[in-house]
Design goal:
single chain, mainly alpha, two-stranded antiparallel ribbon, 2 strands, 69% helix
């Protein structure tokens, strides 16, 4: 193999490309290194193991996803836009199975902080803002899981007990409408 000096970002970019092209199952230190034409040992300078590589890739992905809307929007519109962007990003690449296993990075922390700060500026308490953040994240992750499963099953809609189930894009919108309504009630208490 050719010896090429690569930086940490080169490995992250290669890992993201491999994830996008072939899925998480194909990500290994060896496969990422092979994609770049270097020895897997070269990667250990930047990443002690595959989990560290994937954590860095996820953090980079979050930064690239641009999930934070314009700060000038009203809190409720901002929340819907932010959650929708999160949903779209998670639907693009199915990170959901790895979310609990990977250590959150700087980008994830920044998104959390900005989300909570936006609601605090709107008048929510720290506890309410934090609870709202986790409620939105749970709705987004649930809708993204459904989106991926529907894509795998190749069905846009299903019938469950005679009721047509909407695609997950609409389901995230419905969830957000309910969350916004509950948050407005808390804000007006």
């Amino acid at each position: 193999m050719a010896k090429t000096a690569l930086n940490k970002q080169s490995y992250i970019d290669a890992a993201l490309a491999l994830i996008s092209e072939e899925g998480f199952d194909k990500v290994s230190m060896r496969n990422v290194a092979a994609k770049l034409g270097v020895s897997a040992m070269a990667m250990y300078k930047h990443f002690p193991n595959k989990e560290a590589l994937l954590s860095s890739a996820l953090d980079d992905f979050i930064g690239r996803a641009n999930v934070l809307p314009d700060a000038d929007m009203d809190w409720d519109q901002w929340l819907v836009e932010c959650a929708t962007r999160m949903f779209m990003a998670l639907s693009e690449i199915d990170w959901v199975p790895l979310l609990g296993a990977l250590r959150p990075g700087e980008q994830a922390a920044m998104v959390s902080d900005q989300f909570i700060a936006k609601l605090r500026r709107a008048g929510f308490s720290a506890g309410q803002a934090t609870d709202a953040y986790f409620a939105v994240i749970q709705s987004v992750i649930g809708a993204a899981c459904l989106q991926v499963s529907l894509r795998i099953e190749k069905h846009a809609t299903k019938n469950v007990d005679g009721v047509k189930v909407q695609n997950s894009r609409l389901q995230i919108e419905c969830s957000l409408e309910l969350l916004i309504a509950a948050l407005r009630l808390q804000l007006n208490e």
